[in-house]
Design brief:
The protein is of the alpha/beta class and 368 residues long. The chain has helices at residues 10-23, 34-39, 42-52, 62-70, 88-93, 103-116, 140-147, 171-189, 202-207, 338-344, 349-354; strands at residues 5-9, 28-32, 56-59, 77-79, 97-100, 120-125, 153-159, 196-200, 215-216, 239-244, 248-251, 256-257, 263-264, 269-274, 291-294, 297-302, 310-313, 324-330, 335-336, 362-365. It is elongated, with a radius of gyration of 24 Å.
């Protein structure tokens, strides 16, 4: 195995899962595992979550749903992105659930489902302001009234998605909740009820308990990150990214390191190479403000990140080849989170985590 490894602590995943269950004890839980479970391992994390009692799984694409089915995930799986026509047969073959955005797509799926003698469970998606997917609130009943006539399309859920439930300014999220509630009231007044009503992502579960309804859709919180700007809960990051010191060199004053000579030594110093780069998904934009932990101390990464290696300025500290290097995680004294790296590199922690490539081995442990 490579010295560069992502270690995933399943016991911390369970702890995060239990916190979310306590926050919404009466709601079903749809674990969002798209994008390789946010970089943590689609199959391994989903299997663990199914064993913990997750009620549902949410993926972005049909291909992810197929992988889950082939890995033995039996719980319902909702595909969150509208499919293209070539993907529709998979809903029938693999018992996947669909977001309702398009009458044309549902009509074609209905015909395929008839051939397979299947009923396709469907969730009506209400666009309350994300303006990316869904049906506008004022068009919801008209859309439903057309789609419900398709005999193999079975509406079991209704949902929406928040744009900014992690922010201090609550005004737009409250507006979205109001729009969604108006749609629910309209359906209720017509005697139409849905088995599942869901809107709350990780931040909304924390900040807007009125948005929990009877199903929640946590994603980033499962993996240990609370991005809410207001309330905080003790979620624990489940991923530690480690490598080891490879080669140590001395630099004289005036000498540079790496491509394009982005770092030039002002004084004599020592540097070490570590075998991780942007080819592994570590951000190319890393600069001198991003650090790693070696032997209980933080050191800056310098120069340009290479495809397969990065460079650390270690000064004249007694660092040796083979010493452990922590890029994300904690040694008990110091810690570096994906949030910290993201903010230093003008991005978001989702980007840092989901960018980790498959060539970085994942090691799954408990009680690390």
């Amino acid at each position: 195995m490579r010295s560069t490894t992502a270690i995933i602590d399943i016991s911390k995943l369970k702890s995060n899962y239990n916190i979310l269950r306590k926050l919404a004890p009466k709601a079903a839980l749809m674990a969002i595992v798209k994008a390789n479970a946010y970089g943590h391992g689609l199959i391994e994390c989903s299997t663990a979550l199914q064993n913990m009692g997750a009620d549902y799984f949410g993926v972005a694409f049909v291909s992810e749903g197929i992988k889950l089915r082939e890995a033995g995930i039996a719980k319902p799986i909702l595909v969150l992105v509208t499919p293209n026509e070539s993907e529709l047969e998979a809903y029938c073959k693999h018992n996947l659930e669909i977001i309702a955005n398009s009458i044309e797509i549902l009509t074609k799926l209905n015909s395929l489902a008839d051939e397979y003698q299947k009923k396709i469970n469907t969730h009506l998606f209400i666009n309350t302001g994300m303006n990316r997917d869904g049906i506008r609130p004022e068009e919801a009943f008209q859309f439903y009234n057309k789609a419900v006539k398709l005999k193999n399309i079975n509406f079991i859920g209704i949902c929406t998605h928040f744009t900014s439930s992690d922010e201090k300014d609550t005004s737009f999220t409250l507006h979205q909740i109001e729009l969604f509630n108006n749609v629910l009231e309209d359906f209720n007044s017509k005697g139409i009820k849905f088995r599942y009503i869901h809107a709350a992502n990780s931040a909304a579960i924390i900040n807007y308990p009125q948005s929990v309804y009877n199903m929640i859709r946590p994603g980033i919180a499962l993996y240990g990150y609370d991005l809410s700007e207001t309330k905080k809960f003790p979620f624990e990051p489940i991923l530690t990214l480690k490598t080891r010191v490879n080669r140590i060199l001395e630099l004289n004053a005036g000498e540079s390191v790496g491509y394009n000579r982005k770092f030039i030594a002002q004084t004599k110093t020592r540097i070490c190479t570590i075998p991780i780069g942007y080819g592994d998904g570590f951000p190319y934009s890393v600069n001198g403000s991003t650090e790693c932990i070696i032997n209980g101390k933080k050191y800056p990464l310098i120069g340009t990140i290479c495809m397969d290696q990065s460079i650390v300025n270690i000064g004249f500290d007694p660092v040796q080849s083979g010493d452990e290097v922590i890029l994300i995680g904690s040694d008990g004294l110091n810690s570096i989170s994906a949030i910290e790296i993201a903010y230093q590199n003008s991005t978001i922690p989702y980007d840092i985590l989901t960018s980790l490539q498959e060539r970085v081995p994942r090691l799954y442990v408990e009680n690390m």
